[in-house]
Design brief:
Keywords: Membrane, Transmembrane, Transmembrane helix. It comes from Bacterioplanoides pacificum. Pfam families: DsbD_2. The protein is mainly α and about 230 residues long. It has one domain (about 5-225). Helix content is about 85%, strand content about 0%. The protein is built from ten helices and no strands. It has helices at about 5-15, 20-30, 40-75, 75-95, 110-125, 130-140, 145-160, 160-185, 185-195, 195-225. Helix 3 packs antiparallel against helix 8 (about 160-185). The longest helix is centred in the N-terminal third of the chain and has 36 residues, at about 40-75.
Length: about 230
């Protein structure tokens, strides 16, 4: 897959998944930025989100390495991974545009890990240091989330650990405006991100990229089959 296009798509997924991000992380972001001093509130939010994005990058590195290993086992696995990535992009586009919410059902996959991590988040939330906020963000980055899992399936299809880490970090940066807006009560930005026309345009872009991904994977296979 073309790297600039991949990174741009990751940014769009994070940016226009704003409503889902606010539901999943908006409450904790608001609690993290709960301070009467504006500069302290911003520093706490940046520390929390820095930890969260760091977790995404680690997950991207691990999943990218796993995808590379699977692709080296057999070429057919690469076809399956990239087909899955294309389908997940289509599902993300449907979710972002608010045409279907099937994507959220994938969140059940991470419940077992989250049951272990969740008690630790409560302890860190009671601490006000920036280090604790960063640690809280790193734990919160593993919260079960359909958008994250879908993006990770796409990262696995790339089969590149470093690109995987960069892609997931870019996805995390895309989610940053919504969560900062939620934490700082920036209503104008939140309204723009959640405007129906904006979301539908972003959804169509993601669906188009997903269709292109699936087509680019299987057309060469069909051509070889016909030629033989």
């Amino acid at each position: 897959m073309n790297e600039p296009l991949s990174l741009l798509t990751a940014l769009l997924i994070g940016l226009f998944g704003a409503s889902h991000c606010l539901v999943m992380c908006g409450g904790i972001a608001a609690a993290t930025g709960n301070s009467s001093l504006p500069e302290r509130r911003l520093a706490s939010l940046l520390a929390f989100n820095g930890g969260r994005i760091s977790s995404y990058a680690v997950a991207g590195l691990l999943v990218g390495a796993a995808g590379l290993w699977l692709q080296q086992l057999h070429d057919s696995l690469m076809l399956l991974l990239r087909s899955l990535a294309g389908v997940m992009l289509i599902l993300m586009g449907l979710y972002v545009a608010r045409w279907a919410s099937w994507l959220t059902r994938i969140e059940r996959l991470g419940q077992y890990l989250w049951r272990f991590l969740q008690p630790q988040t409560g302890r860190l939330l009671q601490q006000s240091s920036l280090t604790a906020r960063f640690g809280l963000g790193m734990l919160w980055g593993w919260l079960p989330c359909g958008l994250i899992y879908s993006t990770l399936s796409w990262v696995a299809a790339n089969g590149d650990p470093l690109l995987g880490a960069l892609t997931m970090a870019t996805f995390g940066l895309g989610t940053l405006p919504a969560l900062l807006a939620g934490g700082l009560a920036a209503a104008t930005l939140s309204r723009w991100l959640n405007h129906q026309l904006t979301r539908q345009l972003a959804g169509l872009l993601l669906i188009g990229y997903g269709l292109w991904t699936v087509t680019s994977v299987w057309l060469p296979v069909l051509d070889r089959s016909i030629s033989h």
